[in-house]
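We read letters as residues; the integers encode the fold. Take this protein.
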Amino acid sequence: MPKKKTAEAPVHDRARLVEELTELIARHPGDAGAYKARGLAYYSVENNPAAAVKDLDRAIALQPDDADAYAHRAMAQLLNGDPARATADIERALDLDPRLAPAHLYRGVIYSRQGDPERALASLNRALALDPQLAPAYAQRGLLYTRQGAPDLAIADLDRALTLQPGNADAFAYRGLAYSARGDLDRAVPDLDRAIVLGTRVGSVYYLRGLKHAMDGERENAIAALQCALRLPLAPEARQNTEQVLAELQQEPG
């Protein structure tokens, strides 16, 4: 059987990743791993969590004891707006394999989304104890530290994430947010720009970039960045602030 593609493929391969996995599934319709890989690609590359859930349902039907598939379906369920099913899937993953580091990472993300930073931090620490090379866990812990008012700790974790995975868009985004929280816009801006180039979907990155454009008198660039922010997930207060700044800029003479 040919070597399977994965969602960790190099950036230049990602444009065709789902297409190639679909071709693989057509040749091997009983291959649970191919469905799992395409499900991961759908939510991590294509931003299509609903399609990811369907593929991961199929992977689990074919291989019911695959802890990794449950862990990935948990993230897809979370991104698809179903935290209850996400929680059930992540607990099932950890029942099957208590030492699966990505499952502890994803449980940390779920706890963070639920507003439980203490349990989120415990889960991320556990993920890194099991796999000290797990770059996304450092990135998520860095984001958590920033939210807890500890940007220096955040930056240390995000530096580590980017050493391990130099193309991690989220790590650049979160480090930019950490530098901004520390009041260091000169360092924040290059990270925010790099995150945007890499395709980040962190709405607050575009909000902060829009503010900096506005501060620099770059009205059109500011409006474009803020409009991008509003097309992405934002906390309610951040969305309100973005709408307010955008409205003020649009009322200014061109």
Remarks:
- The domain at 1-81 is CATH 1.25.40.10 (Serine Threonine Protein Phosphatase 5, Tetratricopeptide repeat).
- The chain has three domains: 1-81, 137-183, 201-254.
- The longest helix spans residues 236-251.
- The radius of gyration is 19 Å.
